[in-house]
Specification:
- The complex is a heterodimer of chains A (129) and B (135).
- Chain A is 13% helix and 36% strand.
- With 129 residues, chain A is mainly beta.
- Chain A has one domain.
- In chain A, strands 1, 2, 3, 4, 5, 7 and 8 form a seven-stranded parallel β-sheet that branches.
- In chain A, 38% of the residues are buried.
- Helix content of chain B is 30%, strand content 33%.
- Chain B contains three helices and ten strands, in the order H-E-E-H-E-E-E-E-E-E-E-E-H.
- In chain B, strands 2, 3, 5, 8 and 10 form a five-stranded parallel β-sheet that branches.
- In chain B, helix 1 packs across helix 2.
- The longest helix of chain B has 22 residues.
- The chains are: A mainly beta (129), B alpha/beta (135).
- At the A-B interface, strand 4, strand 6 and strand 8 of A face helix 2, strand 5, strand 7 and strand 10 of B.
- Strand 6 of chain A pairs antiparallel with strand 7 of chain B.
């Protein structure tokens, strides 16, 4: 059964230290800031199922991330609009994610950067209007 | 204690045009402007502020940086991003805005390719001049 679109009422996540989020709505910068406050400068080892994830944010997609039946966001008909290539060899200002699973999730106002292979894969996704 | 997510706080921060000696959390500033129906932050002056990310600042028309510390990066190019499409998603766009003696923390920059190349070149040359002066 298709998990998207997510039509349930808003359900804002309250425990940002949780390892698994199911049917919750999360500000990515809040999630990042919660970890950064304890010295963890990335979002890692989390599972998101049926979640809405909101920016503004640029996700730096690192190793071990899996996206399954995910809406990456409104690309305006062109996936290139969601992608930014870093000009240098690091990527400051982004929210790094590692070893995270996203199943049946929707992203809002989120852009993506990372390894060229991942970004090239994103570009192959068909957009829907 | 101020509730920074409240509608009243949001309205107040959006209405202002000048910010001085303040810590500005870029994602929060962006969200409050978006909630107010202003996706582009316009006509502001930030003086002696700390602008904190994580976030990508898109410098549109008329954005100037005067005596700012753009952030810590071994290679200044790591602060800059090149957009691939005509739209920008996930960034915080500014226009007609001055940043005066501000310090940026965990903030990247994007915009027109020529402007980004110029900012990167300026930073690299400024760093080279500074290193030379220090001997």
């Amino acid at each position: 059964m298709a998990r998207l679109p997510i039509n349930r009422p808003m359900n804002i996540a309250t425990d940002l230290k949780a390892k698994t989020f199911v049917d919750q709505d999360i500000n990515l910068f809040d999630l990042y800031a919660d970890g950064a406050a304890t010295g963890v400068g990335m979002i890692s080892d989390r599972v998101f199922q049926g979640c809405r994830l909101q920016g503004p944010a640029i996700l730096l997609v690192s190793t071990g991330c899996r996206f399954d039946e995910v809406n990456f966001g409104d690309a305006g008909g062109d996936m290139r609009n969601l992608i930014l290539y870093p000009a240098g060899d690091r990527a400051l200002g982004t929210i790094p994610i590692r070893d995270c699973v996203f199943e049946g999730c929707e992203f809002y106002n989120v852009g993506y950067t990372g390894q060229r292979a991942f970004l090239d894969q994103l570009l192959t996704i068909q957009t829907r209007t | 204690m101020t509730d920074i997510m409240s509608e009243a706080f949001g309205r107040e921060i959006v209405a202002r045009t000048a910010y001085e000696k303040e810590a500005i959390w870029l994602p929060l500033l962006a969200v409050h402007h978006q909630n107010a129906g202003e996706p582009v932050i316009k006509g502001k002056t930030f003086t002696d502020c700390v602008i904190e990310g994580p976030g990508l600042l898109a410098a549109l028309d008329g954005v100037t940086f005067e005596g700012c510390n753009m952030g810590a990066a071994g290679d200044p190019r790591s602060l800059f991003y090149k957009a691939q499409g005509p739209m920008l998603v996930g960034v915080t766009p500014f226009s007609q805005t001055r940043f005066v003696r501000c310090r940026f923390v965990q903030v990247g920059f994007t915009g027109q390719e020529a402007a980004i190349d110029q900012m990167a070149a300026d930073l690299i040359s400024a760093r080279a001049a500074s290193e030379k002066a220090e001997g």
